[in-house]
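@here heads up, posting the sequence + SMILES for the flavin-adenine dinucleotide run so it's all in one place. Ping me if the SMILES looks off, I pulled it from an old spreadsheet.
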Amino acid sequence: MIEAATLDRLRALVGDRLQTTQAIREQHSHDESGHAHALPDAVLFVESTEDVSAVLRLASACRMPVVPFGTGTGIEGASIPVHGGLSLDLSRMDQVLSVNVDDLDARVQAGVTRLQLNDALKAHGLFFPIDPGADASIGGMASTRASGTNAVRYGTMRENVLGLTVVTASGEVIRTGGRARKSAAGYDLTRLFVGSEGTLGVITEVQLKLYGQPERIASAVCQFDTLEGAVRSVIETIQLGVPVARIELLDELQMQASIAYSKLDEFMPAPTLFYEFHGSEAGVAEQTATVAALAAGHGGGAFRWAAKTEDRNRLWKARHAAYYAGLALHPGARSMVADVCVPISRLAECVLAAQRDSREAGLVAPIVGHVGDGNFHVTYLARDERERALTVSLHRVLVERAIDAGGTCTGEHGIGIGKRGYLAREHGEGAVSAMQAIKRALDPLGIMNPGKVLPDAG
Ligand SMILES: Cc1cc2nc3c(=O)[nH]c(=O)nc-3n(C[C@H](O)[C@H](O)[C@H](O)COP(=O)(O)OP(=O)(O)OC[C@H]3O[C@@H](n4cnc5c(N)ncnc54)[C@H](O)[C@@H]3O)c2cc1C
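bot reply: prediction finished. Complex structure tokens:
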């Protein structure tokens, strides 16, 4: 609970940008996950790095929990203020500060969203490829080390953030990285803060890599006789080194959901791959011929092409809405989204086992995946205590199988609240102790997003 005197001091600092109304606190009490909501004591809308610094100095002095908030689209509960305190909303820090066409980079404030950035880049013939389905903030995406459908070709936020401005828990402003494409100077603080989920400091600016718009973009859909055939064709595509831009799997249940939700009536509820190819005319023709042959060898049907921009957009909008389509399958259910990622050679066995386990348990659990990276999501839907208990135990089995296969409990959503219990299983106690030492060094009072990522943080 923030004391009244502390609220007065904050108000003196930022005026009516400090909000304590129930409606605004409720907006900041949850993300898009099924995790329980928790109200912050107050919400503060910051407008500059200096603002953030002043607030964190005060927060340190008063030992007040601070939880950064981007757009609240996370699905691991990472922005939920489980210990109350201050929700620090960065949405007003929404300026694209510079676009360097010659060097293919840009600097943005943390509250800029990915669609806003891509709108600003269009006129320059450039784009930023990382696309979590939601219109997330760049600061939030850096903080969760987000990726999405394009990561198989362009990498994740880890590969595409060149540098940051960060305010640490004590209010100190530091810059990490720079504009050079590589650097061997000292510890890599950029990659330490990327993926730290607001537990080490507040990111206020991000330097990003950009890409030229491809000469040709082609999207296609292929439906398969079996889930195994679809996954095996993906494995061969990746092993052959075909540079697909997107290769996304939807199992038969997810297709049933997406057909109903996004009106994809031309498709069957069968295992399906959505593809996109980027390159020159000749390059795209070569990639598509190879991939179509691999698909046909595994029971894939004819490729349906989305040639026009609006057809492509419709397809990818449906893919990005897959989570909400899945939720609509089981109205009133709470979701738990598995986000495992495994080495590509182990993908088929892990996806098939996940589907078999939830079918045998009688759970509604559609599967969708950025399978080119070995990353897939099972959206477990539970309406009552029995289903919730089954969900927890099946999720544990899935995660342990993925870790035993050399994979991870989370490919892109982060640890948040829900996966803290798996950190030591994945990295070992020694590595978790090293993470705790870093946390103590940068946030000795434990005010930054307590209760997240590390088992006993906060
Ligand atoms: C329909 C749907 C589809 C999705 N698909 C994908 C996907 O394909 N790939 C993927 O990676 N994710 C996906 N997500 C999850 C989500 O969009 C990402 O996790 C995204 O990166 C969250 O960004 P945000 O701005 O909403 O952050 P928030 O949810 O507001 O916050 C997430 C975490 O980052 C911290 N944070 C936010 N801003 C800052 C900052 N400036 N400085 C420090 N910490 C900060 C918060 O404290 C919290 O810990 C999806 C979500 C939805 C709803």
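MO: The pocket of flavin-adenine dinucleotide is lined by residues 31-32, 67-75, 78-79, 90, 110, 132-134, 136-137, 139-141, 143-144, 146-148, 197-198, 202-203, 323, 412-413, 449 (CB under 6 Å).
MO: One more: The CA atoms of residues 257 and 325 lie 5 Å apart.
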